[in-house]
From TrEMBL:
A GO molecular-function descriptor: ligase activity
Pfam short name (any one): AMP-binding_C
Organism field: Desulfofundulus thermobenzoicus
NCBIfam families assigned: PRK06187.1, PRK08162.1
Alphabetical GO biological process terms: fatty acid metabolic process
PROSITE patterns: AMP_BINDING (PS00455)
Family stated for the protein in its record: Belongs to the ATP-dependent AMP-binding enzyme family.
Domain of life: Bacteria
PANTHER family named among the record's database cross-references: ACYL-ACTIVATING ENZYME, BUTANOATE--COA LIGASE AAE1-RELATED
Domain AMP-dependent synthetase/ligase: 19-393
Name of the protein in question: Long-chain-fatty-acid--CoA ligase
Domain called AMP-binding enzyme C-terminal: residue spans: 443-517
Keywords: Fatty acid metabolism, Ligase, Lipid metabolism
Length: 536
């Protein structure tokens, strides 16, 4: 069958920008500090970025990396890079130089844009990233240009504001590459396609009930699953992006008041800091504040505390491999009459599939049969649909393993309630979720094993009042060594991101099975005694 353009156009979130730049050309699109860009100006800046990249030799399929917080350049990259058919690589600003070098080399990135606050992460590795031919300084905190390359605004000036012709021929083309540690020591590059980005962005604004009057505050990092696709979704409905460089409660509440913020996304740890901010209850909201939370199951108390100050909290669940949120605790009006504690308990569940996700099950991981919807029987969450990744970049075996049986295997254990809502109970693997960041215990263990005085090590997550959980290492030192906890912590700080560094060290023998396998669950049971069990 011949596919005709009269009834088919490849889906791409780039079309959202085209429409909003036409319909809302004079409406505010982006707010940052004293800067305000209309949709017409926003589109013009993006066109300049795309044309400047093209002039610099970036072609279709090339990878362009950004190491940047939630400022306008990071948002512009989500359109300017794929406009060429190139692939955006958004890098976590909390990673170490060693980890960043691995991502740049593994992704084959040819260009790197760096906010000058984070240039110190690139300086020690600049000779280790031979594929990077273009370095651009994003001068936001000051005018310094620590890297050998042009300044961002100067770079934009080399490109025309005229739009480029559409080069997206297949909606399944790769649009972004997002690195996640997953459950192994080496990061995996999760490949998103244009179709999935388009549909998930639509799903976000539908489920979050956004429209052109909405004002979205960027408390969620754009490097996390491309901001859960809100980088594109907010633009789709012609809403306003309010950029925020650092997530500080005082600034959050100030912007809520000044800009009339209606929507924001955040990990539970951010909600904890917001709820505990002394001036929270004095905030004069111009509109209802809608909050979407994910990254780790929030405690019902956190949801209750946020709703007491006038916010409405919605729980979602997903992974990098499914473009961020895949399920939502879809609220039903019959629950409005429940008391606050019961309402918060329901809202802490992970819910049902998004409108645009459709497929989610809880199954026996061996037989792939659905578990009973009894709220008790535990199984693995599996998913499929248009918002599942293309696969892991250059890692076909890991892709096949994740897609076995025709479903994406999350590695998360959950129950299915009688009403069809899922609730996470545990992790199949040992991933630690600290403040919304995934930490691979294998990666941390491998780092510690590099220390010459370490004989054995096991890492687990332990309770933490601020971050939910943080890494703790149980270490067996080599006989005769004088190893200290500070030695290990300092050793890790020099090799991995600070948020992955163990916050506690304990020396002693490790519990093992008869075959010599370390029994991590025994360590967890001891550390979590007296606490309500959390994902770990």
């Amino acid at each position: 069958m011949i596919r005709r353009t009269v009834y088919y156009e490849p889906l791409t979130p780039l079309s959202f920008l085209n429409r909003s730049a036409f319909v809302y050309r004079d409406k505010t699109a982006v707010v940052y500090k004293d800067k305000r860009y209309t949709y017409g100006e926003f589109s013009g800046r993006i066109n300049r970025l795309a044309n400047a990249l093209k002039k610099a030799g970036i072609e279709k399929g090339d990878k362009v990396a950004f190491l940047c917080p939630n400022t306008p350049p990071m948002l512009e990259a989500h359109y300017g890079v794929p406009m060429l058919g190139a692939v955006l690589v958004s890098i976590n600003i909390r990673l170490s130089p060693r980890e960043i070098a691995y991502i740049l080399n593994h992704s084959d990135s040819k260009a790197l844009f760096v906010d000058n606050e984070f240039a110190h992460l690139i300086t020690p590795i600049k000779d280790e990233i031979p594929n990077v031919k273009l370095l651009v300084n994003i001068c936001d905190v000051n005018d310094s240009r620590p890297l050998d390359g042009p300044e961002y605004e100067e770079f934009l000036a080399t490109g025309s504001a005229d739009p480029l012709p559409n080069v997206i021929e297949d909606e399944m083309e790769n649009i972004t590459l997002n690195y996640t540690s997953g459950t192994t020591g080496l990061p995996k590059g999760v490949m998103y396609h244009h179709r999935g980005a388009y549909l998930n962005a639509i799903g976000e604004v539908l489920e979050f009930k956004m429209n052109s009057d909405s004002v979205y505050l960027w408390t969620l990092p754009m490097f996390h699953c491309n901001g859960w696709c809100f980088t594109w979704g907010v633009t789709a409905v012609g809403a306003t992006h309010v950029c925020l460089r650092k997530v500080v409660p005082e600034d959050i509440y100030r912007l809520i008041e000044e800009e009339g913020v209606t929507h924001l996304c955040a990990a539970p740890t951010v909600l904890v800091s917001m709820a505990n901010y002394p001036g929270a209850r004095d905030c004069r909201m111009k509109a209802k504040l809608n909050i979407m939370t994910a990254g780790a199951p929030p405690a019902p108390a956190v949801i209750k505390n946020m709703e007491e100050i006038g916010a409405e909290v919605t729980q979602t669940y997903g992974l990098t491999e499914v473009y961020g949120p895949h399920t939502i605790c879809e609220w039903q009006r019959k629950w409005d009459e429940l008391d606050d504690d019961e309402r918060a308990k329901i809202k802490a569940r992970q819910g049902v599939a998004y409108i645009t996700s459709e497929f989610v099950r809880v199954v026996d991981p061996v037989t792939m049969e659905d578990v009973p919807a009894d709220g008790q029987t535990i199984g693995e969450i599996v998913m499929r649909g248009n918002n599942v990744m293309l696969g892991y970049y250059k890692q076909p075996e890991d892709t096949d393993r994740a897609f076995r049986g025709g479903w994406f295997h999350s590695g998360d254990l959950a129950v299915m309630h009688p009403n069809g809502y899922i609730e996470i109970k545990d992790r199949m693997k040992d991933i630690i979720i600290s403040g919304g960041e995934n930490i691979s215990t294998v990666e941390v263990e491998n780092c510690i094993y590099e220390h010459p005085d370490v004989l054995e090590v096991a890492v687990i997550g332990i309770p933490d009042p601020k971050w939910g959980e943080v890494p703790k290492a149980f270490v067996v030192p080599r006989p005769g060594s004088s190893l200290t906890a500070e030695d290990i912590i300092q050793f890790c700080r020099e090799r991995i991101a600070r948020f992955k560094v163990p916050k506690a060290i304990e020396f002693g023998e490790l519990p093992k099975t008869s075959t010599g396998k370390i029994m991590k669950y025994r360590l967890r049971e001891k550390e979590w005694e007296g606490y309500e069990k959390r994902v770990n």
